[in-house]
Write a structure and sequence with these properties.
about 55% helix, single chain, about 20% strand, 6-stranded mixed barrel, elongated
Length: about 425
Amino acid sequence: MRLLIFISIKHLMDRKRQSIVSLMGIVLGVAFFLAISSIMQGSQRDLIERLVDNSPHITVSDEFRKPNRQPVEMLNKHGAIEIRNVTPLTEIRGIRNYEQILHTIQQIPGVRAAATQDGQALVSFAGRDIAISLNGMEPTEITGVSTIEDYMLEGGVDNLIANRDGIIIGAELAKRLSVNMNDNITVATTTGQVRAFKVLGIFRTGRNSYDRGQAFADIKRVQALMNRPNRANSIIIKLDDPYQARAVAQNIENRYAYKTVSWQEATEDFMSTIAIRNIIMYTVVSAVLIVAAFGIYNIISTVVMEKHRDIAILKSVGFHARDIKVIFLIQGILLGCMGAATGLPLGVAMMLGLGQVHFKQPFTSEKIAMPLDWSWEQFALAGGFAIVAAMVAALLPASKAAQVQPVEILRGGAQ
């Protein structure tokens, strides 16, 4: 084997310029493959983490996937029945007996849950009115199902526990209203109820729409404002393992019939788009390495054409066809390994440069760094694909070299 490797290196060194050009193609291909795939995977991971961390893993809403069956349908299960002009009874919307349901859900291992009463409201201060989404929650449960505590600029969720007449608002809303901590603001709802709240916390998530239009208050106060006593319009759930959300949501819906949506179900379209984007991305970056592999194919084919006489001599002194094939396959593998070994550090340098780029996303108020994926899988994929592409590129010329007939070549040389 050492002799075969020596012959392979000798062939490559004989055509040094062409070998370096082919090698540079692999180096640049590996570097771009690594940099682009790390950006795409990093942005995908960042999006999913934001999705999973900033949103409930499961949401139980006060809706049903299927309408309630009418008594006549239940009595005549196999009959052809059509019911027309059924007008639902007017009732207060919300999850009935939500406290008992919430208590049962909280007994599931690895589950944190909280009931919410949400609705539209109008905040007034110093003659200025702004519409917001008012979220009513039990203050002691907010931190278990929400990351809002991580974004607090002033005050905190604990202040709501001490003073149930308080409210937590976003920094953009506070700025538009010119409100500071401990100021009293007036909140009115569509039911005509009006109540004064003291500002006990100000948060900034970096998302303008959220910081401008969301507020948190005690659920009992919000229920009174919405005129929906003892009702919650949703139960939000966080899991220790977010990827169990689909199974847990199915169990809850089977038990209580209320529509229960996991984060995977809520984002199916988004996840499908991500999968298609990954296919396109890997196709494009793989094309770079495939083009570089054609360079290897070209250099090894040229070597085979020029070394017909050497191949014939090798065969005449006892080298088998498989030995000749291995010699040229080694050339492809050597170029692939050297390209990967040089391209990976170059890709790391490109990633470090991209990591210094900061940009402002749409609908956000803060600049963020370029999300990059530094996992070993990206390095293994880039290096492995380069070596495989180089080996496949060398396979065809190596097979042709193995088929060289020494008698015909040597006889032709003698003539």
